[in-house]
Each structure stands twice: as structure tokens, then as C-alpha cells.
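Schema walkthrough. Field components (list of strings):
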Amino acid sequence: QVQLQQWGAGLLKPSETLSLTCAVYGGSFSGYFCSWIRQPPGKGLEWIGEINHSGSTNYNPSLKSRVTISVDTSKNQFSLKLSSVTAADTAVYYCAREPPVGSMVRGVMVYYYYYMDVWGEGTTVTVSS
Amino acid sequence: QSALTQPASVSGSPGQSITISCTGTSSDFGGYNFVSWYQQHPGKAPKLMIYDVSKRPSGVSNRFSGSKSGNTASLTISGLQAEDEADYYCSSSTSSSTVLFGGGTKLTVL
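Field assembly_structure (string):
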């Protein structure tokens, strides 16, 4: 059974860089995208971005200028960096796995990734001076 | 990108059925049937309940069902139970190859 375990610094000062890592246990990274999602206190979910084992990424346009998601396939891990944090970045950050959804497009199987079937437990990150 | 629109709250009595709507633009849904729903209990990570509009992952009760018409997706929970009380979020794949969540709906079981 696939499990995601995440870790990283929980308390940051404004302007610092948030850094979190998520490890995939019990399964391969290959064939999936893995994503980061965050949830500010008392608010809803916000998708941050995703990466596959080849390093292909997609980012939320509203965060793209500050976000870097990377992968270390040798360790079955992927990481999130968010630069120049402010109090507005205070949230619980989740990592999650996105399985492929196949769809025939003009006779060719195309794979899409959008839903999260396995989630990490979440890491609380607080930004405060 | 703005969040998909969900009602802030819905409620129902045990045994009843409720429906949560999720509305967006055609770009928000990307022209695909790629809609998922998540259940989140307080202090817990979200749990996948529905994907591809109406498919249930293994282990999810058949009391949960999904549908989509035009730019509105819906989650229906039948035979409400106390443990269904939670926050529910819809999500879609957009035309820009990004993922968009709804604002969330708090379900209260009376």
C-alpha cells in the first residue's frame, strides 16, 4: 500500500524560503504525477503544483513565480520550495499522488493527471516574525 | 484562476439525501469529465470520494455518487449518516493543465 511521508521546517520568518520533502513508500513514482496542495487555517484547499518522475512540472499561475518543485527519483522523493514567504503562506501543506487517467484523443491514448488518491498527513507551516 | 463555486454549507437529517453543487466555467473544467470530490474531517487530510465525475475508489460507500451537467458538477450523498459530517471539496482539471479546487462545503448532519 502506497504511503506518502512528508517533512520540513514548520516555522519561518517573512522573506525566507519554505522547503518541504515528500517520500513515496510502497510504490514507484514512475507513471504518476505528485502534487503539493496547501490549506490556510480555516480556509479551503489550494493546488500549488505537480511533478512527474521525469521532472515535468505544472504550477498554479498565482504561485508560479515563487514555486519550484523538484524530484529525486533515486530516493523516490519530491520537494517543494516556496520563496519569499509572507504570513499569507501560513498553511497546512499536503503532498499527494495523482494517478493517470487515459483518454483516446484522435486515436492516440493521452494521459491526464488531476485527482489525488493518496495523501500525506500534512505539515503545518507558520510564517511569523 | 478563481476557485470553483460551492455552497458554503448544506445540512440534512440522518437517512436523508443531500446534493452539493460545484460550478465553474468551461475553461475551469477543460472540456473534460475530470471532476473529483474529497471529504475532509477536522484535522485530517482530504480523502478521495469520487473521480472522473462519477467513479468511486475502492472502499468508498455507494451512498456517494457524482454527476455533471454542463459546467456544474454535483455530489450526492444518500442515506446520510453522522460520520458523513465533514467538509467536501470538488476539483477539476482545467484547460491550462492545472488543478482547481472548489471553495469547500461544510456538511452538517442534524
